[in-house]
Amino acid sequence: MEIIHKLEGLYTFSGLINRTRRRDIGEFTTRKPDTVTIDFTPDQERLHDDLLNVVARILARCHGQQNVKFMMTTIRRQTASCLFGLAPLLEDMLNGKLSQLEVMEASDSGDDIDLSFIEQVRSEIEGILDHARKLDPYDPKVQAFVNVLQDKNALDNNKALVFSTFRHTLAYLAGHVEKAGIRYGLVHGDIKDDERADIRKRFALPKDDPNALDILLSSEVGCEGLDFQFCDFLINYDLPWNPMKIEQRIGRIDRYGQESEAVAIINFVTPGTVDADIYERCLLRIGVFEHAVGGSEEILGTVTKEIRDIAESFNLTPEERARQLQQLADNQIRLINEEQELEEKQTQLFGLNIPNQSWEDEIAEAESFWLSPAAIQGAVTSYLADRLGTETEHILGDRPLKTLRLSQDARNRLLEDYKRLPRSIEPVAREWEKWLKGGQPTLAVTFDQDAAAENPKAAHLSIIHPLVRQAARYLDIDEPRFCAVATESDDIAAGQYPFAIYRWSKRGIKPDQSLVAVSNDPTIEASLFSLFQKATDEDAALLPEHTEFEALDARHHAKWSAAKADHVDENRLLVEHRVQSLTVSHGARSLTIEEQISRATNDKIRLMRESELIRANADFDRKVAELQQAANAADIIASPVVLGFVSVNRGADK
Question: 67 and 169: one domain?
Answer without folding.
Answer: no
